[in-house]
Every structure is written in structure tokens, then in C-alpha cells.
Amino acid sequence: MLVAGCGGGSSKHPSSSAGSAAAHRLLAQTFDGHHGINSGVITLDLRVVPTGSSSIKGPIELAFGGPFMDKGTGKLPESDFTISISAEGHQGALQVISAGGKGYITVSGQSYRMPASSYKSLESGLGSLAASGTASGTKSGQSAFSKLGIKPLGWLIRPQIVGSATVGGVATQHVRAGLDATAMLHDFSRLLGKVGSLGVSAASSLPTSISSATQRSIARALGSPSFNVWTGAADKLIRELTVSATVPVTGATRTALGGMRSATLTLGFEYSRVNQPQTITVPTTTKPYSVFRAQFSTILQEIESGLVGSGSDTSTTGGSGGTGTDQKYTHCITAAAGDVAKMQKCSKLLAAG
Hints:
The protein is 32% helix and 29% strand.
């Protein structure tokens, strides 16, 4: 994993680190410079490691990433991104592919073609973001960080160049710094307000900001986070970035989480195979998107109502939301209780829808 392997490189610490001013210059070139990134593989990884809990014993990890490739002016980038989550021995993944002006979602090896409206809404936002960080490399362009209102340079305290490392086959310089948690959270609050501009429909369920009081509370809990970045020695492109902090858990929260004393949070970001050819493979067989929508709805309903593995009878009709066909399909899938043959028969309910 990204945060465990540090990009595959090993730091070599010099006898004395360079001054903070030199580190600031290097970081300014990295974050404020205008770099031409036309293709590559991006990885974003959030890992939570609990300590002392009797109920949550293993790490919780959320990851996003995959290859992308710019197709030129006026065209949306092609990409193959996977969103995955793992916790307590359970894993799940969702693959989203954009290629040839079409979008696909793949779950458990089965692919579904996205409706044109859903695809255009999603890609107009993601395409705009990708173009800001990939195209042309001209001085008039905005970086992806700037477009999202994120200014990492404003988070850092006493940065130092502490060594060098090879990350993904590229020579890099390693900068370490303390982190101003309040400044970071201020940017994250602004980021929430911009998520809606990316065209992601799920954004409507997210808060649009973090209150100042909440920011201060979280900042106190985070204490003194650490920041590390590995930037290309020649091109000053980010190859890896990590932010980590240990959060103490006390009071009623500790009790509710099985006696958890603390949790170590690590956020990792990595670019690899920058400006190298990428292969985006389009699924050869697909099912109607309505099948995916109903299955996904079923999963959410089971999680929310605690029906997973309970064998509860949810075949009764009623409720609100969704079409009658979708509701019948949802009830059929739930009643199948994991029997693949029965679940396949449920698909007949969608034929008329």
C-alpha cells in the first residue's frame, strides 16, 4: 500500500538538512508551478489504525486510484478508477471507467453501462478538474489544488529538505514539515463547498462547510500532524505525499469504540508513470444500469436497516422512493438471501421496466 511502502523508496538522511527557505522554494515549485501532466496513475489512500479497541482490531482503509490519459483539447480524459474500502476482514470495490465518450461501472466482475446523462454530469466535473492539472503546462493554467481551493503551502511549519529517495523509479527530494491543522481544515471546509461543482450527484448529501468551532475542536484533537512530500528532483512534480496524525480517544467515545485509546490517521497521495502511455480497457459485456442501481440500493438499505446476514423477511411491499419495478427487484434480491440462482431470477422483474 502507498502509506506503508512510501512509494518504494528509502530516504537517505544527510548529516545536516537544508534550511527552511530552500525547502519553501522547492515546495513552491512543486505546488505552485505549472506542470504538464498528460497521463499517469494516481493513488489516494486514507488509512485508520486503531489502538486498544476490543471491537475494532484491524485497520480501516479507503482507497481511490487508477490510470488516466488526456485525449487532447476539447476531449474528456480517459480513466479507469477504482474506489475500494476494507475493514474488519471485509472488502468492497467499485470500478468506474471512462473511455470513448462512454462510462462504465464494474462491481464483482460485472460491468454496467452508465446512462449518457449520468456520465456527462460526472465527466464534466472530473474532466474539468483533470484538465486544470494536466493540459498544456502553460503559466495561465490553474493546478488541481488551486481549483479546489487547497493551498498546501499554507499548512506547513518549518519545512526541511531531509534527504532523497527513489519513488516509482524516479529520483526525488524528500521534504518534511510540521502541519498547521487549523489552516488545513480551513481549506478542507472550502473544498466541501466546491465538491458540488464537480458534477457528482452524491455531493448534495455532503455538508458544504466545517464550522469554525468544529475546525478548532478537530485541530486540538489532531495535535501536531506530520507532513512528508517527495518531489521529482528534475521536474518538481509530486510523486508522493503523506499526512499523518495520532488522535486520542476519550470519554464516551472510547467506551463506544470498545476501549479504543487512539487512532492513527494517514492520508497518502501518489503519482506514478507520469506522462507514460496508459491502457484503458472498455468492458466487452455489460448489463443495464437499472440492474446496478437496484443492487446498489439493496446494499444501502441492508446496511442502514441492519439486515445484512439477519435473514429478516423484507418481501412486503410499501415504502417510498424509486419505481415499483425497482422496489419489487429490491425485495426479490433481499429475499434471495445471497442465493445466486434466486438473485439471477430477480433480473426478470427488470425486463418490463
